[in-house]
């Protein structure tokens, strides 16, 4: 069954496509040769979620987060995660104030999490306890300090960068926190031509400054538009079948139990449902297709699944299992 969009949605989509083309152009002036990474990060923000950027140092992950904050007109703050970072350094804390009359009272001092865009740099260099400080903020858009709830700004997004966990001095992120990232964006080395352009541009003495295209209110309106886009029943069934097939207990794939230690939960299907809508919108289409599902399956699922020791020993990684899932439902 195909759901027909109303005329207002079609008009809003046309306007959104023009705006998003300008956003991508501005970001592309600063971030060279990483079109897929830029698009997947934009998809995350337009879907209202958080992104985990994974790659070795020096691939412009932090630069991308800073550039998106400028282009999207978001108030941003950055936290450099280190082993000695404490939860209060991110969330804030209560301090004791004393008035001239001698009366004492506690006052809440907000931490850097109170921003529209929080850049969590090298998040896996902090201890799991500090990493977990972001759990409530990422899911509920609020933090609780000393029994009091404090609402975060709207919109609120976390762009976290992570070094490969094989590197020294890193801690794996808790599974519950990984699940709160809408997409895991793997940042690879640029092509030779892109690296050549990057090398010339960054050593010429002229620093490219991006222009603001949106603001927080306009971003939220685009996020609302995304949720109004229709999704055909066939795409819905494909998403559901793919996510459920990735769970060992369902045994949809013959050897899934031997390959997957734990599979994606319901947040995965919700994330994929939103992400494919955004990809269609950025491409100027009203409704997503199976191609959108296949293109975004890996960034949505790769951090929500864990391979078994046996699969690792055979050289089978999460992305290969996701590819099998795509073939299974395709």
From TrEMBL:
**GO molecular function list:** ATP binding; ATP hydrolysis activity
Against Gene3D superfamilies, the record matches this protein to: Magnesium chelatase subunit I, C-Terminal domain (1.10.8.80), P-loop containing nucleotide triphosphate hydrolases (3.40.50.300)
Cross-referenced Pfam families: AAA_3 (PF07726), AAA_lid_2 (PF17863)
**Keyword line:** ATP-binding, Nucleotide-binding
The answer to keyword Isomerase applying to this record is: no
Instruction: Report the residue ranges that make up the ChlI/MoxR AAA lid domain in this protein.
Output: 257-323
Domain spans labelled ATPase AAA-3 = 50-183
Signal sequence interval, chain numbering: none
InterPro entries given in the database record: ATPase_AAA-3 (IPR011703), CbbQ/NirQ/NorQ/GpvN (IPR050764), ChlI/MoxR_AAA_lid (IPR041628), P-loop_NTPase (IPR027417)
Which family does this protein fall into? Belongs to the MoxR family.
Name-wise, this protein is MoxR family ATPase
């Amino acid at each position: 069954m195909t759901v027909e969009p109303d005329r207002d949605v079609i008009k809003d989509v046309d306007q959104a496509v023009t705006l998003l083309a300008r956003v991508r152009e501005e970001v592309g002036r600063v971030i060279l040769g990483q079109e897929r990474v830029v698009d997947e990060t934009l998809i995350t923000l337009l879907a209202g979620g958080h992104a985990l950027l994974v790659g070795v140092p020096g691939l412009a992950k932090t630069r991308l987060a800073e550039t998106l904050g400028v282009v999207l007109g978001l108030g941003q703050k950055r936290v450099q995660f280190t082993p000695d970072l404490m939860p209060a350094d991110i969330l804030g804390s209560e301090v004791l104030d004393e008035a001239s009359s001698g009366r004492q009272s506690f006052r809440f001092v907000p931490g850097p999490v109170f921003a529209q865009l929080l850049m969590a740099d090298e998040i896996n260099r902090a201890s799991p306890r500090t990493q977990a400080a972001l759990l409530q903020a990422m899911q509920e858009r609020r933090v609780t300090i000393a029994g009091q709830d404090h609402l975060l700004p709207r919109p609120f997004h976390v762009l976290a960068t992570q070094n490969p966990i094989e590197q020294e001095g890193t801690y794996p992120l808790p599974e519950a926190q990984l699940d709160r990232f809408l997409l895991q964006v793997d940042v690879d080395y640029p092509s030779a031509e892109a690296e050549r352009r990057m090398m010339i541009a960054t050593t010429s003495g002229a620093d490219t400054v991006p222009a603001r295209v949106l603001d927080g209110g306009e971003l939220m309106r685009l996020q609302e538009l995304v949720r109004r886009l229709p999704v055909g029943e066939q795409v819905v069934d494909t998403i559901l079948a793919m996510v459920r097939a990735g769970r060992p207990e369902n045994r949809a794939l013959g050897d899934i139990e031997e390959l997957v230690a734990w599979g994606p939960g319901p947040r995965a299907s919700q994330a994929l449902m939103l992400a494919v809508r955004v990809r269609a919108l950025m491409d100027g289409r009203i409704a997503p297709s199976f191609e959108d599902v296949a293109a975004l399956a890996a960034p949505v699922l790769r951090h929500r699944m864990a391979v078994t020791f046996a699969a690792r020993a055979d050289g089978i990684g999460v992305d290969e299992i996701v590819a099998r899932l795509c073939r299974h439902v395709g």
